[in-house]
Amino acid sequence: xxxxxxxxxxxxxxxxxxxxxxxxxxxxxxxxxxxxxxxxxxxxxxxxxxxxxxxxxxxxxxxxxxxxxxxxxxxxxx
Length: 78
Description:
By secondary structure, this protein is an alpha+beta fold. The protein contains two helices and four strands, in the order ββαββα.
């Protein structure tokens, strides 16, 4: 998986790579890539589930550790 970002202040482009399951799961969800444009003043997260894509409010997740966040999102999806 690769993540490419562009700084809105300097227009510098940054790129990073990571392993794991995300890239494979994204491909199996019928998406090859995701482009996110714009910025927000509040926490949001991208939900891709059962062929639907939604941008969801993440204020209730703000400040949680990773394991808590994963558990809360899994509860929302069940």
